[in-house]
């Protein structure tokens, strides 16, 4: 290979990682390359585990051994040679953070510029009277103090340390050396010789006593000198602490900002004041998270049909609790006319309120205060009682996360929280309309340029409906990925390989072109953009397509096509056939009629505009609409969370609704998503679907096992007895290599079979338990053909298109689409599902067009068993296959939140107002 071709492509030789079959290929650089193929065929393995991971690993290996020990170890992929790599950046969906402090603003770093913007251009307004606050001069402070009543005793203090950890010994030494005598630590006065040793890990507040005075004639000069000294030591702030008299207490004053009417002093304007991750800016009640946990009576007593004696209060089911609180509860019962055998549903609202929050007349504390006290006293109790808690907006900051002082700063009438609550499009328009004068113009120019730039990139990737204050944990995988894509656009890097995982997820077909323009702009700068994608418009836009197949799992891992899109349209591959229209998903011939309805009343969650929504039961309903129109707010935040609450289960921040009718028809509600079925290699399809339970019973019934007295537990690799103890049933042993990646060595004792020799001597039809775990679903169906209970479960796995999976395949190697279909198969294994409601949020993520057809078939199979299926989806094939469609819109964010159309797919298609109808 010449030097020229070496630099024009990424050359991979002998890729055998996971299921790849010794692939050799060239990926053209500085191009938009799409990798497509069935779910589980090896697309992510090629893109992420080889191209991205190898690029990262080589960069890390270029660092010193000392630096490497602080970085996560990267596994070396099983590949002979990779050449022509450039630094790689991955934008995956799974990395959506669950950190409650992560918001759209912090992740995109817009918030950092915004904090400087408010610190340099903001003006204080008094939180009490709303008047603008200007800084006081030293003379004004002296005059304010002199206006106190004659004979007032007071101290002048300089604040030195605010809520900081440490012993602060050096500070006390320096103050003593400077000639000072007293300090106030945590509100207590000490002489500097007698200050107790402070706890190193506790936060302390320290004020220096500059002078102690009594207000009388002739003290103006001394007062002025002391005020100057206090301001100097206290960083332009001081505290006047009145001792005794009619109004003792502290008044903070500053040459920075104080309201003359309300005497409220404001801190110095710094960027830290606007950070909810710093003690200077965070609301002290919620510590900057914006929500607080509280005990929810409906979770403490979910079953209102039970009495106190029957265990109606879940935390107090034990007899000990009944004896401990019995007398007081009986006294409360006399007051309200109930006894310990009265069902909770018969309690009057006053009795219910007193039961949970207390009544001093009978010396009853209340269930909630008792639980709160127990939580403070014990960490174990705290962990156990967490299931009875919900979160709600903080009562002090109302979800703003910031201190009142930070919220008192405004630019053009808006404070930081009001700005962060606007949609990105409105925030951008507001910034562009701002007009500054004087030296503010010079300060604002670079800040406005940076802010509008970054917000503009977010609009370009179709996220104009989000707000900067939106918590990252509430975003879909596609939205989180596009946010990181917007951050990368702002970085302006060239010569980088960007690896993306289905960036079109969560995007309405209407918004797809903007995403493709964004990917093109990254590529045109001189970057390689490698996209794993099933979306037809994205595949058609590519410069180069790599299709991996021909099927999934061990039936995949080969390159079935590589070249331009025109060549793919003529190729005899699965994707080629669907793009040409030779294969397509046939919509059902008839639409089912509903068997009842759930009615959601006055839904106001997020941007939903007081909706009354009918959800039909016994059919498959698809909720559609452009990105940000309110689909997740309606289905997940409003309906799903309120159904969980109705069933006595925990649901944080349920949406704002007026009520729900028709709940008596729902017996269980299940959300099926693409999260892994297990986080360790010990979890696998056989254990998750309970197939392994049946297999162990069959082996325990084998002649040899009965002779030896082996029970089903003997055939588990998770417990002592039958497993190999050398590797604890893992089949491999991890060898720590310190600053090199850990090496996994096949266990020499069991040769990777997971079981000890005695267990492997038991055979069923000539196969050991280890051989069965190595079988695919297809092989297992042939092998266990005469076991009806087991066959039913295996048939369901085949029905959802997972015939190729090995029964013992580690859960960590399954794709999101495979994990989701395993979860569906577990439900399909049940005989009948009346009263079951299944919710799926974009189930086509990670699925090839061919598999979307299988998924539709499986969802209809759930409905055929009398279940109700609700799907949030943009895929037109799924929409066409639904019995009922609810289309939200017309736009995203504040322009959405309304029902544009509702009815069968044919009725949506005929509705000119529906953006979804245009793409059907």
UniProtKB/TrEMBL annotation:
Principal location: cytoplasm
Domain ABC transporter: 590-915
Stored Gene3D superfamilies: ABC transporter ATPase domain-like, ABC transporter ATPase like domain, ATP-grasp fold, A domain, P-loop containing nucleotide triphosphate hydrolases
Matches recorded under PROSITE patterns: ABC_TRANSPORTER_1, ABC_TRANSPORTER_2
Keyword DNA repair: yes
This protein's UniProt keywords: ATP-binding, Cytoplasm, DNA damage, DNA excision, DNA repair, DNA-binding, Excision nuclease, Metal-binding, Nucleotide-binding, Repeat, Zinc, Zinc-finger
UniProt keyword ATP-binding present: yes
Localization per Swiss-Prot or TrEMBL: Cytoplasm
Domain of life per record: Bacteria
Family named by the database record: Belongs to the ABC transporter superfamily. UvrA family.
NCBIfam families: PRK00349.1, uvra
The protein, known as: UvrABC system protein A
Gene: uvrA
């Amino acid at each position: 290979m010449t030097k020229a071709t070496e630099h024009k492509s990424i050359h991979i030789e002998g890729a055998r990682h996971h299921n790849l079959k010794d692939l050799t290929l060239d990926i053209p650089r500085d191009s938009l390359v799409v990798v497509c193929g069935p779910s589980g065929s090896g697309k992510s393995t090629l893109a992420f585990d080889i191209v991205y991971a190898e690029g990262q690993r080589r960069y890390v290996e270029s660092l010193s051994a000392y630096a490497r020990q602080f970085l996560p170890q990267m596994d070396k992929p099983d590949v002979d040679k990779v050449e022509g790599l450039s630094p790689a950046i991955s934008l995956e969906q799974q990395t959506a953070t669950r950190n409650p402090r992560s918001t759209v603003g912090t992740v995109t770093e817009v918030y950092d510029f915004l904090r400087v913007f408010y610190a340099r251009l903001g003006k204080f307004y008094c939180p009490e009277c709303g008047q603008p606050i200007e800084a006081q001069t030293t003379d004004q402070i002296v005059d304010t103090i002199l206006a106190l009543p004659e004979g007032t005793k007071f101290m002048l203090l300089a604040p030195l340390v605010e809520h900081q950890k440490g012993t602060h010994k050096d500070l006390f030494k320096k103050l003593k050396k400077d000639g000072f005598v007293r300090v106030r630590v945590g509100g207590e006065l000490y002489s500097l010789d007698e200050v107790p040793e402070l706890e190193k890990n506790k936060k302390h507040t320290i004020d220096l006593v500059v002078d102690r005075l009594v207000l009388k004639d002739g003290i103006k000069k001394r007062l002025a000198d002391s005020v100057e000294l206090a301001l100097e030591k206290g960083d332009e702030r001081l505290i006047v602490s009145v001792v005794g008299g009619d109004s003792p207490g502290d008044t903070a004053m500053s040459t920075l900002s104080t309201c003359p009417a309300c005497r409220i002093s404001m801190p110095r304007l710094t960027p830290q004041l606007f950070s909810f991750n710093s003690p200077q800016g965070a609301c002290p009640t919620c510590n900057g998270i914006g929500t607080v946990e509280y005990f929810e009576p409906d979770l403490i007593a979910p079953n209102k049909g039970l009495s106190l004696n029957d265990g109606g209060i879940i935390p107090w089911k034990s007899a000990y609790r009944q004896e401990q609180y019995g007398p007081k509860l009986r006294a409360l019962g006399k007051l309200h006319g109930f006894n310990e055998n009265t069902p909770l549903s018969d309690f009057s609202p006053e009795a219910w309120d007193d039961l949970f929050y207390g009544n001093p007349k009978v010396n009853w504390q209340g269930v909630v205060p008792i639980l709160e006290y127990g939580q403070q006293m014990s960490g174990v109790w705290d962990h156990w009682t967490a299931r009875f808690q919900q979160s709600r907006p903080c009562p002090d900051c109302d979800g703003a996360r910031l201190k009142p002082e930070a919220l008192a700063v405004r630019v053009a009438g808006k404070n930081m929280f009001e700005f962060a609550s606007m949609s990105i499009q409105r925030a951008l328009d507001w910034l562009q309309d701002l007009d500054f004068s004087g030296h503010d113009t010079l300060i604002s120019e670079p800040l406005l340029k940076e802010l509008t730039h970054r917000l503009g990139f977010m609009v370009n990737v179709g996220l104009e409906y989000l707000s900067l204050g939106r918590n990252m944990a509430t975003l879909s995988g596609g939205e989180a990925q596009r946010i990181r894509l917007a951050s990368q656009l702002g970085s302006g890097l060239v010569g980088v390989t960007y690896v993306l995982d289905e960036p079109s997820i969560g995007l309405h077909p209407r918004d797809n072109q903007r995403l493709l323009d964004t990917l093109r702009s990254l590529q045109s700068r001189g970057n390689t953009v490698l996209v794993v994608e099933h979306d037809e418009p994205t595949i058609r836009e590519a410069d180069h397509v790599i299709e991996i197949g021909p099927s999934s799992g061990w039936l995949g891992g080969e390159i079935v096509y590589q070249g331009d899109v025109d060549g793919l349209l003529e190729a005899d591959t699965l994707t080629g056939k669907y793009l040409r229209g030779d294969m397509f998903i046939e919509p059902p011939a008839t639409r089912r009629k509903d068997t009842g309805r759930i009615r959601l009343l006055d839904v106001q969650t997020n941007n939903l505009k007081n909706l009354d929504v009918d959800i039909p039961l016994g059919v498959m309903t698809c909720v559609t609409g452009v990105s940000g129109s309110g689909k997740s707010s309606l289905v997940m935040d409003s309906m799903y969370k309120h159904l969980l609450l109705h069933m006595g289960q925990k649901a944080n921040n349920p949406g704002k609704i007026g009520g729900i009718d028709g709940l008596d028809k729902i017996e269980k509600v299940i959300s099926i998503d693409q999260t892994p079925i297990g986080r360790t290699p010990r979890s696998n399809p056989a254990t998750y679907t309970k197939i392994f339970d049946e297999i162990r019973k069959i082996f325990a019934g084998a002649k040899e096992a009965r002779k030896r007295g082996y029970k089903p537990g003997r055939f588990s690799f998770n417990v002592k007895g039958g497993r190999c103890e050398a590797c604890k049933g893992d089949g491999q042993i991890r060898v720590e290599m310190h600053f090199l990646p850990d090496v996994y060595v096949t266990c020499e004792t069991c040769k990777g079979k997971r079981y000890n020799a005695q267990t492997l001597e038991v055979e069923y039809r000539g196969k050991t338990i280890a051989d069965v775990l190595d079988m695919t679903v297809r092989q297992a169906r042939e092998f266990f053909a005469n076991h009806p209970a087991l066959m039913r479960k295996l048939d369901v796995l085949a029905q959802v298109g997972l015939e190729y999976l090995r029964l013992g395949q580690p859960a960590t190697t399954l794709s999101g689409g495979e994990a989701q279909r395993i979860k569906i198969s577990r439900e399909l294994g049940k005989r009948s599902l009346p009263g079951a409601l299944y919710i799926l949020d974009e189930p086509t993520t990670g699925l090839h067009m061919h598999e979307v057809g299988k998924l539709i078939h499986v969802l209809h199979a759930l409905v055929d068993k009398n279940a109700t299926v609700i799907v949030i989806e943009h895929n037109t094939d799924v929409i066409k296959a639904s019995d009922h469609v609810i289309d939200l819109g017309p736009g995203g964010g504040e322009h959405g939140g309304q029902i544009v159309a509702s009815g069968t797919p044919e009725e949506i298609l005929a509705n000119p107002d529906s953006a979804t109808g245009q793409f059907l």
